[in-house]
Specification:
With about 180 residues, the protein is mainly alpha-helical. Helices cover about 75% and strands about 0% of the residues. The chain contains six helices and no strands.
Length: about 180
């Protein structure tokens, strides 16, 4: 499949996904998206898909591609969840800005490793640690009450850390299989 065909499929998939809230708006007052919401969601979905398409095209190794898919999916869910409802308190809680640290770790690691499998594995493990540390750092700074809400935040972050670990494990498998970029 050519790059332009992949991008066309991605654009159609993005449009299809955006039809879900558009249709829901016709039947329920619970869903009320603005034009900005659709534009932002479309940009986020298309951007995540484009990252996957562009990187996956250069690596034909299945564990590498699966690791990439898990990482892109986790990143997309982390951004979407934080913007929609927030992980720590509401979406307006400044503690949620600490999650940008996960993306800083991912960006630095991906650049430093030049997307090589072993470097990406290390990057994903570092992202898992960062993800897990965010609520702990937030608790040290803002000193919230220790209650069920804090436990839920810790469980949610542990789940996301698990996504990063799974991705790292897949990248490690790709490295052991000797994955190399397609020239």
């Amino acid at each position: 499949m050519t790059l332009s065909q992949s991008i066309l499929r991605l654009a159609l998939a993005t449009a299809g996904i955006l039809m879900i809230p558009l249709a829901a708006m016709q039947f329920s007052n619970e869903v009320n998206w603005s034009l900005f919401d659709f534009a932002f969601a479309g940009t986020l979905l298309f951007g995540a898909g484009l990252v996957f398409v562009l990187v996956a095209r250069t690596w034909k190794n299945t564990p590498y591609r699966l690791g990439l898919a898990v990482a892109v999916g986790a990143g997309l869910m982390l951004i979407w969840g934080n913007l929609a409802v927030g992980f720590i308190g509401s979406e307006d809680n400044p503690a949620n800005l600490l999650y940008a640290g996960v993306f800083v770790v991912l960006a630095i690691g991906a650049l430093a490793s030049r997307l090589r499998p072993q470097g990406m594995a290390t990057t994903m493990f570092a992202a898992a640690l960062t993800q897990f540390l965010v609520p702990l750092v937030a608790a040290l700074i803002w000193k919230p009450a220790l209650n069920l809400g804090m436990l839920q935040v810790l469980v949610l972050n542990t789940i996301f850390a698990g996504f990063w670990v799974a991705s790292g494990w897949l990248f490690r498998r790709a490295a052991r299989a000797g994955a190399s970029p397609v020239r």
